[in-house]
Automatic annotation (TrEMBL):
It comes from the Eukaryota. Residues 182-307 form the Caspase family p20 domain. Residues 1-90 form the CARD domain. GO terms for molecular function: cysteine-type endopeptidase activity. Residues 311-396 form the Caspase family p10 domain. This is Caspase-2-like. One of its GO terms (biological process) is proteolysis. Pfam families: CARD, Peptidase_C14. The active site is at H259, C303. The keyword Hydrolase applies. The gene is LOC115221437.
Length: 399
């Protein structure tokens, strides 16, 4: 990125962090290919708006001059033109201040690129007849003969009129294959009847029923276990991780519905605990080679409010994994005795409605946003850990 643009970002960093609304900007950034999806997902994984904007500003300098200008254009499209105008004014001042150091062509190019930022409404884009000169789809000879191919989109940026190298940026949009029959395996452990009756989790059976229906509709082979003690939870998950059918499926989903003793411990019905990292380790490359390179979603519905006990945490190296927690450390998870838990019911609703056109990561972000909007007085903040290397869509027709 040109040093003028970089300096403008640095000088306006606090202003940008305080004022940019990422939720309205995000779709335009994707539409205009300002960032590849892998970088968008990194931004999405941040828990707060300010953290998302800081990440956005930190990765923008790695993009080309064209992407910087498109970034300002996207601000205008998303009704944040006042922010784009502020940056443009700063660029103009920096151009004049650095005019003696700039070549005539560089001065002209920067000046013209910023002066063209006049649109205030997003243009309409056709869904068909895309300009074939703008994108190339590149396949290796072997991939052309396969039914499931990974996609490589390469954006061809034109050179500037002065003949200087435009430093084209290549964006890689790759997706996990999701075309197996069945699509994946779904396994759920539901502990709702405990040895200590005061711990019983009324309403959890509705969560189980709704999840089983959801993943049946999504073409998953399903299995469930209920009311297991701590040792049996380990045995059940180990047995699931060793199923030969995992080798034929493109993904797996594991759901654990129980109580949490602290941020990393789950209760069996006998009151004993299992460590979450121990359970996740059953699905790593060493213990579960059938799932190497395949995406895995773990949904944890459990409180994480008792943090007096020192948390056991193993720094495990994970890949192709998403872990969706119903709440953040230090908070409880809310459950209605008749309607089920807030988190699981919102997952069922969003996945049922959006799985045909949204990625797993986008749907989980939507779940969090919906809970915040629908239950403003509920102190529950779902968080998700992403360790995906590709975009994960449950709908195979998207890729």
């Amino acid at each position: 990125m040109n040093h003028i643009y970089l300096e403008a970002l640095i000088k306006n960093r606090v202003f940008l962090v305080r004022n940019i609304e990422y939720s309205t900007l995000r779709d335009f950034l994707i539409q205009e290919n300002v960032f590849p999806m892998s970088q968008i997902e990194v931004v999405d994984s941040k828990l707060h708006r300010t953290a998302q904007i800081r990440e956005l500003i930190d990765i923008l300098p790695r993009r080309s001059d064209k992407q910087f200008v498109l970034f300002l254009q996207c601000l205008s499209y998303s009704e944040q033109k006042h922010i784009a105008d502020n940056i443009a004014k700063c660029v103009y001042k920096l151009i004049e201040a650095n005019k003696p150091k700039l070549s005539i062509n560089e001065y002209k190019r920067i000046n013209e690129s910023i002066s063209n930022l006049t649109l205030t409404e997003a243009p309409s884009y056709p869904t068909e007849n895309v300009d074939e000169n703008h994108y190339e789809i590149a396949f290796s000879p072997q991939e052309e003969t396969q039914s499931e191919s990974s996609f490589l989109f390469e954006e061809n940026e034109p050179s500037y009129e002065n003949g200087e190298d435009s430093n084209p940026t290549v964006s890689y949009l790759s997706y996990y294959k999701m075309s197996s029959e069945p699509k994946g395996l779904f396994f759920i452990i539901n502990n709702d009847t405990f040895k200590d009756c005061s711990l019983n989790r009324n309403g959890s059976k509705k969560d189980v029923s709704d999840l089983m229906t959801l993943f049946s509709d999504l073409n998953f082979v399903r299995d469930k276990k209920e009311n297991l003690n701590a040792m049996d939870m380990k045995l059940a998950l180990w047995g699931f991780s060793q199923m030969t059918l995992l080798g034929k499926a493109d993904c797996c989903v594991v759901v654990l519905l129980t109580h949490g003793k602290n941020i990393n411990q789950l209760l069996g019905v006998d009151g004993n605990v299992v460590h979450l990292d121990d359970l996740l380790a059953y699905f790593n490359s060493e213990n579960c080679p059938a799932l190497v390179g395949k995406p895995k979603l773990f949904i944890i519905q459990a409180c994480r409010d008792d943090i007096k006990t020192q948390s056991y945490h193993q720094a495990a190296i994970r890949s192709d994994v998403v872990i969706a927690y119903s709440t953040s450390p230090g908070h409880v998870s809310h459950r209605d005795p008749q309607e089920g838990s807030v988190f699981i019911q919102e997952i069922v609703s969003v996945f049922s409605e959006c799985s045909k056109h949204m990625s797993i990561t986008d749907m989980l972000i939507k779940v969090r946003g919906n809970i915040k909007q629908k239950y403003p007085n509920v102190s529950q903040y779902p968080i998700t850990e992403f360790a995906l290397e590709k975009s994960w869509y449950l709908n195979p027709t998207l890729h």
